[in-house]
């Protein structure tokens, strides 16, 4: 063999000698270069152990004296950090030095050629060297594996005060003292000293090592350690630590190690577990397992024995150790939670295999050794039924336990979260696999389930030919029968099962020992010893007893909706009923026939056949979903068929991570669920409008990747509600249909309803700390701190540090759900949230003291979800900016994470909202009105708006109280406003009604015998309602017509207006709004003034407001624009500003820009509606018609006379209020009562004019 490269240096590759050395007589190579701790067998793997940062200063190899004997039958050596090693000046150079020693020893103790596996195992800082050594050996073509004991392969480790190297390096001798203190269990002393010494260093003070040694000696006094010995250890360790730290500070591997690797984590010191994620970046075939103990004692006593067992199991799977390793090693290996049977690539699909009823009693994963190697290129793991699993007391609990292991393995494998997870259960494992798949799928994980030949219910249908099909006989008896079947003794198993069942029915006990004797005779040809059989029965019996009891009987509570595959074994058809039964609990299940019987389908060529089926299935699923990546700046939280739902962040910019503060809500929704990232590009936006446009482009790019996404939905809370509204308006201008969901928030900033984020009050980091504390459940703590701050004034003048410490103590355990495990991480999140808040508040800062609001009216469908105490105010505020609102009440808090019942309720409301058709925008019933609603006689009622399009939402209030079974407010959306005549518009709306009611059509006409409807036209909507009624009458449909204060012969507002003359659409829009909100006197006064101005020859505007509105608001006088006189629009601009200030209380904080946009939008609607061509019908409407007039209407007689010409069955009733206030909250119930009373008894009106 020839090594690659040559030379030395930090960035160079170092040559590995391949010259075979002569055998040595001694076990120590050279002069203290390599200590052999265990001779081992010539044909076994060679394990070489690499020291930590102190270089085993006290005695070379002393760290590994406990683990070495447990690694039988391997040869075990420990490299020594001697003067030669001390002279190396880089990590690659030192690795090459050690590799020369390793190869010399390995070749001198190998039979024949270089055929033995070499395992390089590094502890702590030794992981850095072990990785580099393994990389060099692997590149040289040498059969190598790397084991890393609980540290990263980079240096220094990530910063945290709880671990060595995580703070500023303090110098070799000081670090040696802290390292020794930790090794002797004095963690608190080490951490305290580390923090104080780091602060001294930061201040420029020198560390007194002698004083530190004295303090450490006092702390370690009980250990019987002499001062002289301690000083010697410190001096030696200091030299080594200084050198090893300096030759690789910082150090990051230049290339990935592509050979097999195993990372063993110490469970008692989780601060080192980041190694799983980091090391995966530098190892292409890395497995991760949990060992035993802490980082500091994992090489001692029983902890070392556990780690040794894991290394041996790893070596065995690689083929470096024979199968006859000790039973003690096997037992220790059982302590791991998952066996990785095939590493696979990080981007490949992951297959996790679930054991049968015996829990793989003999050796975890042994059932799947044949099939696992045939599932390339997938990563394949087998779940181990260990003590933790044995303590689970239900199928869902055990499934959740296994799922945590699965997700941890996926993360540790370097997967970016995009690959497919396949849960494959064999026999009874089908029960668990189905439940695991269901839980993962509901959590938004990309999952598939494979079931090998059994039902997902338990016990199976009754038949003596199969396990569990007869009366359960007890764990050990069932284990004997299961083993007999596994060895092919079916006749014996069936005969015994029948006889044992009879004995049990007669009340006799089963003699398990006698049964084992009979089984031993039956299996005698297999060469199975009695002791081994008894061990298998005992282990299997415990597992079978427990697994049977936790789910007997078991039937899945919900269907699994993800992809599923059932593979049946053709040679045992008694199991084929699984196809019918499992189909009841899987909505997307495929069924195929594999090879072999139920009992040998995981062995030999049968396993190969099953593996081919699984791989083909995985390939199809992967290809089907690879076309749906995420656009840049989008995080996909869940991806399954359905709408594309995008969540907008709040003021914190999702400081916890995209979608983290949504809790379980994304997992409860169907579709592509995404979170918009507040990244560097978003942070750079200079205005809130620019941010909304950026997010809009991201959403459109992402949605283009999902052409099957049925609907586009924006969801926002806090300032995310405002941003979502802005995006919705931009999409509306681009003619892109979308839906909007507002979660318990106003769409204005600052909100009048929220007083919790007053950042000018207490400071950004303080408020961010409160926000995160509230989010983690410490509401009482936050309330107490806020109250104290208000009482004392400058309570947080010194900053947020103490507050954060106190808050962390309150919520530390809850923060783990967000991945925050230390005070330092908590402070980092608070700082990030504060930074985001400051930037977003800068973008949201309104001008001239007004409020930030949506710059327009959104015509699409909007759902507002809120709590009961805020419902009325939020609904009132939202109706200024949205025409089509549905409000739903859920007990929620604007700060809380959505979990449990709250998340379920919100998800349910959103799902129901999206099911509705776009025509039924406001026909949904509001729970507030359930008790007070009136019976609508089961006739759908559709309200036709006037020229204003129901801009303030009063028509929706009428629909709510009418409480019709179906119906709603018809919408003047973009499609409607493309119509050029009343007839075309009426036809469009009738088509929508037909679609909404699912009327059966013959050609283009509905079947009249199945259709009935009531049309209600308000004010200027009367001509359109009449046109629709005439078209339905021509089709023979049962239609009824209600006109509220309007004339069917007039398209548009009164030609005389309030002042007796038409003032133009802009002025009329302003006056109409004033009347709508109850300012009738103001409207009358202004109408008269504007009429006089018109008589003086001033120009009338049509459509959008002139730019002088902006000048008026800005206080610029004189009516000049760009140096030119523009007196024609000055009066209108002044009217607009007078109206804005007069109506501001009723407008709930609407900004002047939003008011301008509202007026301009309303004026353009008036212009459009007035321009519609109308058609005089030759015939009159002959169906039931009701005209409702306000009391004391001066024009009552002329309106009645006009409408009577076009309606042959016209009846008239009165209602409270005037033309506009009749729709207000105080009068709308009276109006609804008139309509419903007339509908029930058409001729019984309050005042009836028969015409």
From TrEMBL:
Gene3D superfamilies: alpha/beta hydrolase (3.40.50.1820)
Segments of skewed composition (Gly residues): 1-10
Disordered: annotated span: 1-22
Protein name per Swiss-Prot or TrEMBL: DNA repair and recombination protein RAD54B
Lineage: Eukaryota, Sar, Alveolata, Dinophyceae, Suessiales
């Amino acid at each position: 063999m020839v090594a690659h490269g040559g030379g030395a240096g930090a960035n160079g590759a170092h040559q590995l000698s391949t010259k075979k050395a002569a055998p040595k007589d001694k076990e120590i190579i050279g002069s203290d270069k390599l200590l052999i701790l265990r001779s081992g067998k010539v044909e076994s793997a060679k394990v070489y152990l690499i020291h930590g940062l102190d270089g085993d200063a006290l005695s070379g190899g002393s760290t590994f004296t406990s683990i070495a004997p447990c690694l039988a039958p391997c040869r075990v050596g420990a490299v020594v950090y001697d003067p030669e090693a001390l002279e190396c000046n880089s990590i690659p150079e030192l690795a090459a030095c050690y590799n020369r020693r390793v190869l010399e020893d390995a070749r001198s103790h190998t039979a024949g050629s270089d055929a033995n596996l070499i395992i390089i195992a590094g502890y702590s800082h030794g992981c850095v060297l072990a990785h580099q050594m393994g990389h060099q050996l692997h590149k040289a073509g040498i059969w190598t594996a790397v084991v890393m004991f609980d540290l990263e392969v980079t240096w220094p480790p990530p910063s945290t005060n709880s671990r060595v190297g995580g703070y500023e390096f303090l110098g070799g001798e000081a670090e040696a003292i802290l390292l020794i203190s930790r090794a002797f269990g004095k963690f608190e002393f080490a951490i305290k000293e580390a923090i104080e010494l780091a602060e001294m260093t930061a201040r420029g003070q020198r560390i007194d090592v002698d004083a530190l040694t004295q303090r450490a000696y006092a702390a370690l006094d009980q250990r019987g350690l002499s001062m002289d010995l301690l000083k010697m250890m410190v001096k030696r360790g200091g030299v080594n630590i200084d050198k090893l730290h300096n030759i690789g500070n910082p150090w990051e591997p230049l290339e990935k190690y592509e050979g097999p690797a195993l990372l063993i984590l110490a469970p008692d010191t989780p601060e080192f577990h980041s190694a799983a994620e980091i090391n995966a970046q530098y190892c292409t075939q890395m497995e991760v397992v949990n060992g035993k103990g802490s980082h500091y004692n994992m090489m001692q006593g029983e902890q070392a024995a556990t780690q040794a067992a894991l290394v041996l199991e790893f070596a065995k799977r690689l083929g470096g150790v024979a199968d006859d390793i000790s039973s003690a090693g096997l037992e220790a290996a059982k302590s791991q939670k998952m066996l990785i049977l095939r590493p696979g690539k990080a981007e490949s699909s992951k297959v996790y295999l679930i054991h049968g009823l015996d829990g793989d009693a003999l050796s975890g994963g042994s059932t799947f050794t044949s099939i696992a190697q045939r599932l390339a290129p997938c990563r394949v793991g087998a779940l181990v039924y260990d003590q933790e699993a044995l303590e689970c007391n239900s199928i869902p609990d055990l499934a959740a336990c296994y799922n945590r292991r699965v997700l941890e393995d996926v993360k540790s494998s370097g997967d970016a979260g995009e690959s497919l997870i396949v849960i494959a259960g064999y026999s009874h494992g089908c029960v668990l696999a189905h439940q695991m798949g269901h839980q993962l799928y509901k959590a938004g994980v990309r999952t598939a389930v494979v079931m090998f030949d059994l039902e997902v219910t338990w016990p199976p249908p009754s038949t003596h030919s199969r396990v569990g099909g007869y009366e359960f006989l007890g764990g050990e008896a069932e284990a004997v029968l299961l083993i007999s079947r596994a060895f092919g003794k079916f006749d014996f198993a069936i005969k015994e099962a029948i006889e044992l069942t009879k004995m049990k029915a007669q009340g006799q006990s089963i003699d398990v020992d006698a049964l084992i004797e009979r089984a031993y005779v039956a299996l005698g040809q297999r060469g199975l010893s009695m002791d081994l059989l008894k061990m298998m029965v005992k282990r299997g019996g415990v597992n079978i007893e427990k697994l049977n009891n936790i789910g007997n009987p078991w039937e899945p509570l919900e269907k699994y909706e993800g992809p599923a595959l059932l593979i049946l074994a053709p040679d045992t058809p008694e199991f084929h009923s699984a196809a019918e039964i499992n189909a009841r609990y899987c909505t997307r299940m495929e069924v195929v026939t594999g090879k072999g019987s139920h009992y040998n389908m995981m062995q030999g060529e049968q396993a190969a056949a099953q593996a081919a089926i699984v791989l083909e299935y995985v390939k199809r699923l992967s290809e089907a979903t690879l076309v749906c990546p995420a656009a840049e700046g989008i995080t996909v939280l869940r991806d399954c068929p359905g709408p594309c739902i995008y969540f907008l962040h709040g003021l914190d910019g999702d400081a916890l991570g995209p979608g983290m503060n949504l809790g379980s809500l994304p997992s409860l929704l169907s579709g592509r669920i995404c979170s918009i990232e507040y990244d560097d590009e978003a942070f750079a936006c200079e205005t809130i409008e620019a941010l909304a446009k950026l997010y809009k482009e991201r959403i459109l790019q992402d949605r283009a990747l999902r052409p099957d996404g049925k609907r586009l939905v924006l969801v926002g809370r806090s300032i995310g509600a405002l941003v979502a509204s802005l995006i919705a308006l931009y999409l509306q201008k681009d003619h892109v249909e979308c839906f909007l969901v507002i979660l318990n928030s106003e769409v204005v900033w600052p909100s009048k309803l929220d007083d919790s984020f007053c950042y000018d009050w207490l400071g950004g980091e303080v408020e961010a700390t409160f926000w995160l504390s509230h989010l983690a459940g410490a509401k009482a703590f936050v309330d107490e701190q806020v109250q104290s701050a208000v009482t004392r004034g400058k309570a947080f003048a010194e900053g947020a540090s103490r507050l954060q410490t106190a808050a962390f103590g309150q919520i530390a355990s809850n923060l783990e759900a967000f991945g925050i495990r230390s005070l330092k991480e908590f402070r980092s999140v608070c700082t990030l949230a504060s930074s985001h808040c400051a930037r977003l508040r800068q973008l949201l800062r309104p001008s001239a003291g007004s409020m930030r609001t949506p710059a327009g009216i959104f015509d699409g469908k909007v759902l507002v979800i809120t709590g009961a105490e805020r419902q009325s105010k939020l609904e009132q505020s939202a109706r200024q900016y949205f025409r089509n609102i549905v409000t739903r009440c859920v007990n929620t808090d604007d700060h809380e994470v959505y979990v449990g019942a709250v998340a379920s309720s919100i998800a349910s409301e959103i799902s129901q909202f999206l099911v509705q058709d776009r025509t039924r925008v406001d026909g949904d019933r509001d729970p507030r009105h359930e008790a007070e609603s009136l019976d609508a006689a089961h006739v759908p009622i559709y309200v036709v708006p006037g020229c204003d399009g129901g801009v303030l939402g009063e028509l929706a209030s009428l629909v709510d109280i009418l409480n019709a079974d179906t119906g709603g407010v018809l919408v003047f959306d973009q499609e409607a406003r493309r119509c050029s005549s009343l007839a075309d518009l009426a036809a469009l709306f009738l088509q929508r009604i037909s679609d909404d009611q699912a009327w059966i059509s013959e050609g283009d006409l509905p079947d009249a015998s199945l259709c009935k409807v009531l049309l209600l036209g308000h004010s200027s909507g009367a001509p359109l309602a009449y046109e629709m009624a005439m078209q339905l009458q021509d089709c023979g449909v049962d239609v009824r017509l209600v006109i509220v204060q309007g004339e069917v012969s007039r398209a548009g507002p009164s030609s005389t207006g309030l002042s007796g003359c038409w003032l133009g659409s802009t002025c009329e829009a302003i006056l109409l709004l004033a009347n709508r909100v109850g300012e009738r006197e103001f409207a009358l006064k202004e109408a008269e003034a504007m009429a006089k101005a018109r008589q003086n020859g001033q120009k009338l505007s049509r459509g959008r407001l002139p730019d002088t509105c902006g000048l008026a608001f800005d206080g610029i006088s004189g009516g000049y624009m760009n140096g030119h006189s523009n007196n024609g629009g000055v009066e209108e601009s002044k009217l607009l500003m007078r109206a804005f200030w007069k109506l501001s209380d009723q407008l709930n904080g609407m900004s002047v820009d939003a008011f301008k946009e509202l007026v301009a939008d309303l004026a353009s609607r008036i212009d459009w509606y007035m321009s519609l061509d109308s058609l005089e019908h030759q015939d009159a409407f002959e169906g039931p018609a009701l005209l409702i007039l306000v009391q004391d209407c001066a024009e009552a007689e002329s309106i009645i006379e006009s409408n009577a010409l076009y309606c042959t069955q016209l009846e008239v009733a009165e209602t409270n209020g005037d033309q506009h206030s009749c729709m207000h909250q105080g009068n709308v119930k009276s109006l609804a009562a008139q309509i419903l009373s007339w509908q029930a008894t058409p001729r019984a009106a309050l005042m009836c004019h028969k015409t």
